[in-house]
Amino acid sequence: MSETILIVEDEVKLAKVLIDYLDQSNYKTHHLINGNEVIAWVKKHNPDLILLDLMLPGTNGKDICKEIRAFSKTPIIMVTAMIDEIDRLIGLELGADDYICKPFSPKEVVARVKAVLRRSDPDYLNDFNENEFMVNHDAYNILIKGKKLDLTPVEFRMLTMFIDHPVRVYNRDQILNTVFDDGRIVLDRTVDTHIKNLRQKLKDANPEKDYIRSIYGIGYSFE
After folding, report:
1. Beta-carbon-side half-sphere exposure of residue 3 (alpha carbons within 13 Å)
2. Which of 40, 134, 156, 164 is deepest in the core (most CB within 10 A)?
3. C-alpha to C-alpha distance for 152 and 130, rounded to whole angstroms
4. Mean pLDDT for the stretch of residues 114-140
């Protein structure tokens, strides 16, 4: 049975592109433009995931997200053209499962949808072993199955980010903003180098698994 994605977006052309890409990935879609229509539709149809724009005619995305969380755990991905970090955090604090910033690649949206649906699946949550990694923020170290990883400060922050949000897809800009938070100028290829080194250290510690997955044209996720 196909999963249903509710797209709440007042830019009709953008919504049409998302509908086309999600349809190609075998999802059912429904599109709403006005925020005032969302709550009643969600209560009646119970979608599997909601792509929710922040700025809408009628009720705005933040208020919609907050109200939905009062009665439903349906995964919500906030979509916004506002790049201010506070707005991103507010979106997540209101109960959103992820956010994505405009402009974006439709392929990235599909990847995010798949990732959020996967990690909200009870079977996945039961299989994910939270005790596999032990993070000690005070000592700035991480144990994998009891074995201490020899990490640089950047690798520690990067791995902590991945552990906190398994399966979430991060593009390079998001990794840069999270890991290098001191305002320094860092090139995209620097992220790739750190990922390569971190992946090797994880492989040395546990050869049975490849934890960091490359998402072609988008970024990385942790599984």
Report:
1. 17
2. 156
3. 22
4. 71
Provide the pLDDT for residue 45.
96
CA-based R_g, the chain, Å = 18
For the chain, give every residue range classified as CATH 3.40.50.2300: 4-123
Average pLDDT value for residue range 130-151 = 83
Q: Measure the CA–CA gap between 9 and 57, rounded to whole angstroms.
A: 9
**Euclidean distance between CA atoms 175 and 82, whole angstroms:** 18
For residue 152, give the DSSP letter: -
Amino acid at 81: A
Structural class in CATH, domain 4-123? alpha beta
pLDDT for residue 18 is more than 80? yes
Residue 144, pLDDT above cutoff 60: yes
Whether the per-residue pLDDT at 127 is higher than 60: the answer is: no
CB 32 within 8 A of CB 18: no
Contacts of 94 (CB under 8 A, 6+ apart): 62, 65, 66, 69
Average pLDDT over residues 118-147: 72
At residue 40, φ and ψ (nearest 5 deg) are -60, -40
The fold of the 128-222 domain, in CATH, is Arc Repressor Mutant, subunit A (1.10.10)
Beta strands in the chain (DSSP E): 4-8, 28-32, 49-53, 76-80, 98-101, 133-136, 141-144, 147-148, 170-171, 212-215, 219-222
Please report which confidence band the pLDDT of residue 183 belongs to, taking 50, 70 and 90 as the band edges. low
